[in-house]
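The data are quoted verbatim for completeness:
=====
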Amino acid sequence: MAGSFFEKVYEIVKSVPEGRVVSYGRIARAAGNPRASRAVGYALHVNPYPGIVPCHRVVNREGRLAPAFAFGGTDAQRKMLEGEGVVVDSNGYVDMARYEYREL
């Protein structure tokens, strides 16, 4: 069960375009389990496809970067997002009204 849910999460995250972000909760809803935000976070933390599944595009519902981003920490996530044109404020937040991908 977890394996198939994780695979759904990875497919959904791969659909998030460059320069956009999405919340853990939106991914959980799109994967068919709206209460599984934490499971989404865990799936991304153990992502076996770094570089293919763009985990850096996932933030919390308020736009906060992941404090324990598995692939280099918050600074790495910030740099990756900024490299795609996403503005991250000095407190580590993305403006969700501007950058959230809502097509899921």
User: Anything to note?
Assistant: The beta strands are 22-23, 58-59. Residues 30 and 104 are 6 Å apart (CA to CA).
